[in-house]
Write the structure tokens for this entry.
Amino acid sequence: MTSLQPPTDATTLLEQGERHFLQGDLLRAEDTFREAAKLDPEAADSWSNLGVALFPLERPEDARTAFGRALSLEPEHDAAREGLAHVDTVDAAAPDAPPTTDLLLMPAFDDEASLAEHLGRIAWYVGPWIDDIGALRIVVAPDLGTPDLLDRIATSTPDHLDPAVPDLVRALAQRTELIVDHDASALDHAFSTSSRILVWDSARWHRLTTTLRAAGATRQLPPTIDIDPFAGTARMHEIPRVVSTVFSREASAAGPARFRNALETLADHKPTDICYVFGGGPTIRSAVDRDLSDGFSIVCNRFVWDDALTDHVDPTFLAFMDASCVGPSRAGTMFREHLRTWLEGGACRFVLTFDVFGPWVEFMLPPELHDRVIAAPAQAVDFPATRFNADLRSAWWMPDAHNVITSVCLPVAATVAQEIRLLGLDGVRPDKVYESWGRSWEKDAESEAESVPDDPFLAALRRTHPWRHNWVSPDYQDTYRDNLEESLRRIFTQLEQAGTRITCVTPSWMEVMRDRGGASTPA
């Protein structure tokens, strides 16, 4: 069983985080130290260790904050004092222009098909920052190290990837160096000059480093970033976070101004007292029989695929926090094509997402639409959610509450409207056996095509985001479903106590929806 709940022992988490750090897995170390600090916020060691993990990720301000918190708890904490002094020293010596980033892709590739797949993914995810890459070094088996290898890769990109990938591969190839496996001199040079190791197969990499340590190897390796789509920190939503960490991009400062502009535009076009929030369940079909002109609407994910429903609802905001929407699959291509068409169809239309996704959304859209992309920083919250931001005007952050409704749609709705009306939050039938993510959230087949068996869309998603779409354990989904409903209950209670009226206007299997007017038997 995969549990969504963290361990309850902060000391154990500190030990786990230290192991991750020593293995070079800085993102896991960061996550583990954060959990330790959450469990025991008065422990200076947790905050100091978090600062140590953040600094090599090139996030000096976050590291400084963590060290400062440790020192506020324990003023004589040696590690925190040394860490803070090191941050200040490096900051003072930093050049005005950021240096380019040299990356090393490991472990070695021994077949061309795997290289084509992973190089296509990497080219897509670093697309907004290709000019910031000094060199991408790829280790290959001796029989692959031919001069025309990268040219062949660029012309043999897998069909399930976005059509733009070949051009990105060609651009990246100009910065790519091939290193033949077992060339000790070349490998030593790569290890000593690369700022990050991108690990595309975490299981093989773990076996390799374990073998090296057992053999007494003392080579200091650069920090590793796990981009394995099957495992590790890159699963599901993590690849954009991983890549943006590599390039140390600050969150866009344009978000608050763009949000204010969106609200002004909204006020000029539609009533704002009522907000219709659409989930992805089959009951959204009933919207075509409803008059929605007394408010504005927020929809999510691939809603705009359905032209007829989109024309009737005329949403003001489209929200998403699923990495597949900005991912390199042809399914993502379809989403982006519909998104662009929808944005170009009216002035009162905006995209809402987390700031880690913002660079890719802008990268995929023409410059004249960039001001329509509203990306806010996400703050981790417990699951079920214990914190919620009901006023984005006063505090510019969204809760990373594990679902687009709780994380993005409801914060925006609560900021603007006095009444929130919910449609398409169907939940799941208690007597039905579901596959994939249907166990936790039943989806409308026309606007959420991933629920259609054997659809080319689903096939592309499964190949490009394998962990997300090929295997999710029933226990995980059951826990997710229960925690999501509890999150909604807590958020609704908070909003209702503040005077916001919440109504479910379509049937739902979830008790929290039925308590607010939803009938209990969706069709």
